Amino acid sequence: MSEDEIGQMRPENFYDEYGEKEWERLEANIHRKMEFESTVHYLKEYLPDSGKVLDAGGGAGRYTIWLAERGYEVVLLDLSEGQLRVAEEKVKERDLEDKVSFLKGEIRDLDFVSEEFDAVLCTGGPLSHIVDEEERKEAVIELKRVAKSKAPIFISVMSFFQVISNIMSLCPEEVVLLPEYLETGDYTEEMVQKHSLEPTFTECHFFRREEFEELLESCGLTVEKIVGLEGPISELVDIEKFEEESTEEDRKIVREMVEKTREDPVVAEISSHMMAVVRKA
Ligand SMILES: C[S@@+](CC[C@H](N)C(=O)[O-])C[C@H]1O[C@@H](n2cnc3c(N)ncnc32)[C@H](O)[C@@H]1O
Fold it and tell me: Rounded distance, CA 91 to CA 121, Å?
């Protein structure tokens, strides 16, 4: 693997390159839309009516904008300068600059005083991009530190089982990674090099539900809920065929199916992303 390819596996480089596609991601198809819609459903349920919110690993700013449009004061923090630029542009286009500030930063080492925020988001998998177990714990402790007592913290991660169907349907040459993946839940530069593969994503850790819950509880957080954001539709169907052939009414039925099933513990395991709503104990 060349130096360039190794660089691609660092999240900041991957997301710099990904640019505007990260903004488009949450509207690409019904599967991605459900990630957004389910997240928003739980934001509405748990957020305080007003206050200051940290959008950590906020990427292109979809949730920052949703929050700012509802009157929250938002700080969007991200490792990727490319993502920060896209987010700044989207915020400017909507005249929301007075509601949002931007900061380049790392979720493991947040440059904020303790208890600064009324709510904290870390959605779409920033925690999954930390492959070292101790470092993931440091990140969760930081997210907790900057949240006020009893403030809701929303953390979504990428889940373990989606990778198996993804590999089999999209990159069958990566099947050789499965024995090690089953042991660790990791996708790393070392694994890719060992099998002389091309990198297809950044380094990542994919979570089982129980492991996620244990991590959060070990950091002194009370878990209110863990849900499967995209529900049973995840990567398990031919999404493009469904997009082409389904009617508005079909999509309404699928949405309702996700709404009804996303809190089932089995569904969190098979969803592409699972989200925890937690509070300081
Ligand atoms: C898939 S995007 C999610 C964006 C947005 N939060 C969402 O839910 O759509 C993941 C983002 O996390 C950022 N990220 C990854 N690791 C990070 C870290 N350790 N600290 C801060 N941001 C990180 C990436 O740069 C990227 O913008």
Answer: 18
Q: How far apart are CA 271 and CA 229, in angstroms?
A: 6
Dihedral Cα 29, 32, 34, 37, nearest 10 deg: -110
Cross-strand partners of 49: none
Which pLDDT belongs to residue 3? 64
119-122 vs 52-56, strand pairing mode: parallel
Report yes or no on whether pTM surpasses 0.85.
yes
Q: How far apart, in whole angstroms, are the C-alpha atoms of residue 100 and residue 52? A: 10
Whether 215 and 138 have beta carbons less than 8 Å apart is answered as no
Question: CA-CA distance, 99 to 117, in Å (whole number)?
Answer: 14
117 vs 79: CA distance, rounded Å: 19
What is the C-alpha to C-alpha distance for residues 80 and 119, in angstroms, rounded to an integer? Answer: 22
Ligand 1 nearest-atom number relative to CA 122: 6
Q: Which residues surround ligand 1 with Cβ inside 6 Å?
A: 11-12, 15, 22, 26, 57-59, 62-63, 78-80, 83, 106-107, 123-126, 129-130
- The CATH architecture one would assign to domain 3-280 is 3-Layer(aba) Sandwich (3.40)
Cα 77 to averaged position of ligand 1 atoms, centre (Å): 9
pLDDT tens string 110-158: 999 999 999 999 999 999 999 999 999 999 999 999 999 999 999 999 9
Domain ranges of the chain: 3-280
pLDDT tens figures, 227-250: 999 999 886 668 888 989 999 999
